[in-house]
Amino acid sequence: MADGRTNAGTSDNQSERYERDFLLGLYRRMTTIRQFEEGVKFLFLEGVMPGTIHQCQGQEATAVGVCAALRQDDFITSTFRGHGHALAKGLSTQELLNELFGASTGCCKGKGGSMHVGNMSKGMVPGIAIVGGGIPVAAGIALAFKMQNTDRVAACFFGDGAVAEGAFHEGVNMAAIWDLPVVFVCENNLYGASTHVSKVMRDTNIARRASNYGIRGQQVDGNDVLAVYEAAKVAVEECRGGKGPVLLELLTYRLTGHSRRDPCHYQPADEREAWAAADPLVRFARVLKDTGAADDAGLEAVKAEVVRRFDEAVAIAKREPQPTLDDLTTDVFA
């Protein structure tokens, strides 16, 4: 039984174990998420894009590290902060932007918007905005995989705030007693909206809760993409091998507000500065350069390509058709 220990420094010690293309792929996906979020932020500020957004700048390593350990036919459940999960699981920038612009060509035909992105054909259930709502759903998906005698795995993303929900206990307990192949991924960014985790739980080590259910838990440096990948890879292999669920707690931090109107006044300045210094993109770029996998010019070229593709996708999304009145009666079960 794991004791909630943290994996630290994996990138520095183990990056040489991986092929250069794999490492650059991780960096490209993380950069794609960061640039997507930064670009979308300005589109909302300009009033060009409808609805609202909950962004994940600073948490790119959690999505990319976990999804890199999954197969295409594995499934994930997500939250209202799901852009990064979607891009990491294989959804395209174009289908996401189309969705955010409300176009009928979006990943959810313009009916989901920012808080409900997903694509079932790519293994992502559209985001569930109810806090903790994806946890029992992931357990259900894992139960289906087990009943079908497959080795497919479900991974469930949720925040530290969801741990206080009854759905967390119910979903994790069900998965534990039935040995279901699901990896519960808690992205602990220290705040449930504006409330610090220390104000809602006496023991803030969430990974330790796994022992209460008789499953393995592990606390991981969520801003180290290779540490996340290593932990997720082991957890996924255990699930495929019939060893039951695993709870991963990924320690991370969002460098943006809870939603687009949140100025983050509740985050102390020194705390923000400390976590900004641990930016997962900056850290991984340093690792790539230190190990000779990339240089500054190569990394800048990656960023430039990502920005160019984002700008092209925005131009297309703005011209995409909007749903019609007839679309109101499609995709409903009533």
- Mean pLDDT score: 94
- Bin the strand percentage: 5-15%
Shape: globular
Instruction: Report Rg.
Output: 19 Å
Text of the CATH class = Alpha Beta
What's the structural domain tally?
1
Distance between the termini: 46 Å
Give the strand tally.
8
Structural class of the secondary elements?
A: alpha/beta
CATH architecture: 3-Layer(aba) Sandwich
* Residues in helix, %: 40-55%
What is the gist of this entry?
The protein has one domain: 3-Layer(aba) Sandwich (Rossmann fold), CATH 3.40.50. It has 11 helices and 8 strands.
Structure description:
With 334 residues, this protein is an alpha/beta fold. It has a single domain, classed as Thiamin diphosphate (ThDP)-binding fold, Pyr/PP domains (Rossmann fold, 3-Layer(aba) Sandwich). Helix content is 41%, strand content 10%. The chain is built from eleven helices and eight strands. The strands form two sheets. It has a six-stranded parallel β-sheet, sandwiched between helices. β3 (154-159), α7 (166-177) and β4 form a beta-alpha-beta unit. α3 (60-67) packs parallel to α8 (225-240). It is globular. Residues 1-9 have low confidence and may be disordered.
Per-chain topology:
Elements: E1 6-7, H1 10-14, H2 20-45, H3 60-67, E2 75-77, H4 83-89, H5 93-100, H6 134-147, E3 154-159, H7 166-177, E4 182-188, E5 191-192, E6 195-196, E7 216-221, H8 225-240, E8 246-251, H9 269-276, H10 280-290, H11 296-317
Parallel strand pairs: 1-7, 2-3, 3-4, 4-8, 7-8
Antiparallel strand pairs: 5-6
Helix pairs in contact: 2-3, 2-4, 2-10, 2-11, 3-4, 3-8, 5-11, 6-7
